[in-house]
Amino acid sequence: MSVIIPVYNAESSLEACLDSVLKQTCREFEVIAVNDGSTDRSGAILDAIARSNARLRVLHRPNRGLSAARNAGICMARGRYLGFVDADDFIDPTMYESLWAVARHDDADVVKCGYRVLEPGRTPRVVQRPQSGRIAWTGGRPAVLAYLANGIDTVVWDGLYARYLFRTIRFPEGRIHEDTFTTPLLLNAARRVVLLDAALYNHRKCPGSITGSFSIRRLDEVWARVQLWRTLEGGAVPGRLRDAIDLQVARSISRNLRLAYAGGGMAGLAEACDALGGVIPSTELLRVARNRTINVQARLFLRGVLAGPLAAATLLQLDRPWQAYRRARDAFLAGNACPNAP
């Protein structure tokens, strides 16, 4: 197998990351580190370790972003299966041996495990599906539906993927939310997908990540959902699958425009609404707004977006009391739950 590590200015965590990968209990694997134009000591660290460990192959290149670095690693890979590790993270010693054993036993093209989210000052949080045992899907539509229902995680660094899947699939260069684009395509192309009930990857969540703030680039999340329409049978997506994609599109739009309004007021919302027009055509947005499998509140907000930033802002303002009520209700119910109730 080949493990691909994109590296950009990661000198503080790089040695620990590489140490965890190079000490895997499995025998036959290579590590490809792509130095994506680092300006710190990352390149020197990679070269020093490569001189003493033949498993590590290093590529130095100008900075082009995470997706381009991963794609370069894919082109260099010689393994039958590919894994991805971020340079800020580290993995358990048995991760790839465990994933490879399942891939071989179940003849699976994609095998994913759970992971731990590590944040400064907080207890590690385990993300694991399923909670016990293992679960498998036939690849294609069943696996994509499971993914859209949050049964399969978006991230790629928690898994092992048959190399042949990347004959026609690459990470989207110049965009963020690259895994939101790539993961469902891999699941759709796979013959069999298996989830393992063990948290074997350790993901460091750094302060200042994009998850809590807004920039126009965050609309790449919506773009990725829309591309799924385009890819699956040229847009002729069956009803249940299209409904699931529509729901994710609606949620992505709502989440990001709320962030735009919270961070930039009317000006931020207007800018985001304008940029959204370049991501999803108004005809497609109207079709999503008419999809009755999506809740009324979300459909009404999409109608507001189509009408313009003022209408969207009005709906967001009207929604605030309802959101506050729900938070207060949930807190009240949680505080008054009877611990001895059967």
UniProtKB/TrEMBL annotation:
InterPro entries according to UniProt: Glyco_trans_2-like, Nucleotide-diphossugar_trans
UniProt keyword annotations, A-Z: Glycosyltransferase, Transferase
Keyword Zinc belongs to the record: no
Residue stretches making up the Glycosyltransferase 2-like domain: 2-125
Pfam families listed in its UniProt record: Glycos_transf_2 (PF00535)
A molecular function GO annotation: hexosyltransferase activity
Domain of life: Bacteria
Protein's recorded name: Glycosyl transferase CpsJ(V)
